[in-house]
Amino acid sequence: VQLVESGGGLVQAGGSLRLSCAASGTFSRINDMAWHRQAPGKQRELVAAITSGGSTRYADSVKGRFTISRDNIKNIMYLQMNSLKAEDTAVYYCYGNVKPHLFTPRDYWGTGTLVTVSS
């Protein structure tokens, strides 16, 4: 099972980006998914999470600006980021709790995509 992020890049403050996370491999289902981020010199933090049923939760710092969603048919998760701020600059990581065939569910992480917001 692999999780691969895309969509990061350089954007001006106030701009928008959409991140994608595509799951590939052999698995039965994907349970909870989430986006985390890690800024330079800081700990990794949860940005937004979504259950398989579509329930969502967000960090206070991104509420009203970011929207998490997923396509359970295509096995892709998205993060729409609007009104970006310099403090949103970080490497964004995709997380998924995935059940491989014949195995119990386990946690998987992508390798990250860099988002840089210039002020």
Give Rg in angstroms: 14 Å
Q: What percent of the residues sit in helical stretches (DSSP H or I)?
A: under 10%
Question: Outline, from the CA principal axes?
Answer: elongated
Mean pLDDT: 97
Q: What proportion strand?
A: over 45%
Structural class, by secondary structure, is mainly beta
* Order of helix and strand elements from N to C terminus: EEEEEEEEEEE
Can you tell me the residue ranges where pLDDT is under 50 for at least 5 consecutive residues?
A: none
Total DSSP E strands = 11
Q: Report, as a whole number of angstroms, the end-to-end distance.
A: 37 Å
Number of helices, counting only DSSP H or I runs of 4 residues or more: 0
Largest sheet: 7 strands, mixed
Compile the SSE list and pairings.
Blueprint: E1 2-6, E2 9-12, E3 17-24, E4 27-38, E5 45-50, E6 56-58, E7 66-71, E8 76-81, E9 90-100, E10 106-109, E11 113-118
Parallel strand pairs: 2-11
Antiparallel strand pairs: 1-3, 3-8, 4-5, 4-9, 5-6, 7-8, 9-10, 9-11
Give structural attributes.
60% strand; mainly beta; single chain; 119 residues; four-stranded antiparallel β-sheet
Task: Describe this structure as you would to a colleague.
This protein is mostly beta strands and 119 residues long. It has strands at 2-6, 9-12, 17-24, 27-38, 45-50, 56-58, 66-71, 76-81, 90-100, 106-109, 113-118. A hairpin with a 5-residue loop joins strand 9 and strand 10. The radius of gyration is 14 Å and the shape is elongated. The model has no long low-confidence stretch (mean pLDDT 97).
